[in-house]
Amino acid sequence: MSLQLSSNAPNFTQDSTNGTLNFYEYLGDSWGILFSHPKDFTPVCTTELGSVAKLEDEFEKRDVKVVALSVDSRESHEAWIKDINETQNTEVNFPIIADEDRTVAEAYGMIHPEASDTLTVRSVFIIDPKKKIRLTLTYPAPTGRNFEEILRALDGLQLTDQHLVATPANWKNGDNVIILPSIQDKDELAARFPKGYEELTSYLRITAQPET
Ligand code: BEZ
Question: Which residues on adjacent β-strands are paired with residue 34?
């Protein structure tokens, strides 16, 4: 069965461009993003890894460690990183897992045999500091992912954890947010949302985004 939201993220030790990597040790108490791509030296993947490298500061601000993966070898990844850096005008510093024996790809359900029985699809897993899977996303090989959207979703998850708010459709950082329907106690509402809130219906209560 595929991994579901709130499942424990499987730990692994695997070769990578940063040497042997134990996933849990690498993440420590940080958030994590594990994302797979189908193959080294392919055009869409080259632009994706370049985009992630350019967002390094954004991931760091949110205390997120990024790990990429494909079933190619470490030597292949290392040679490809040179192309990514050159063509995308960036520097890939995050590790790329060399999952040649597919142990990680299988543990995370990244191989979809009806799409390809040898290559990983474009999976994304956002993992919280308790090692729970908080978001999954799967794109097919020809469709590049939007990593700004992944940052936006991370911001929403971190706000939910800190302030018991949810984020509405198309929310952007700084926009108003929604008070979780589970908070009903008037004293708790006043303490958590001192700037007040607008009650559109009993279940749709809008408030300014709390400070993080
Ligand atoms: C790509 O990254 O460009 C790609 C990889 C596999 C299939 C199609 C495109």
Answer: 67, 125
Return the pLDDT at 122: 97
In contact, 89 and 47? CB cutoff 8 Å: no
Parts of the chain belonging to CATH 3.40.30.10: 13-144
Q: Is 38 touching ligand 1 by the criterion CB < 6 Å?
A: yes
Catalytic: 45?
yes
Report the alpha-carbon distance of residue 166 to residue 124 in Å, rounded: 21
**Two structure tokens written together for 37:** 């791509």
Helix (H) or strand (E) run with residue 51 in it: helix 43-54
Give the tens place of pLDDT for each residue, 69-117: 999 999 999 999 999 999 999 999 999 999 999 999 999 999 999 999 9
Q: Report which ligand 1 atom has the smallest distance to the Cα of 144.
A: 2
Q: Let me know how long the chain is.
A: 212
Q: Are 130 and 28 in contact (CB under 8 A)?
A: no
Residues facing 137 on adjacent strands: 124
Q: What DSSP character marks residue 109? A: T
Tokens of 12: 């692994």
Q: Is 44 in the pocket of ligand 1 (CB under 6 A)?
A: yes
59: helix, coil or strand? helix
**131 Cα: distance to centroid of ligand 1 (angstroms):** 30
Closest Cα to atom 6, ligand 1: which residue? 141
Say how many C-beta atoms besides its own lie within 10 A of residue 52's C-beta.
Answer: 23
CATH fold of 13-144, please? Glutaredoxin (3.40.30)
**Token couple for 164:** 């018991």
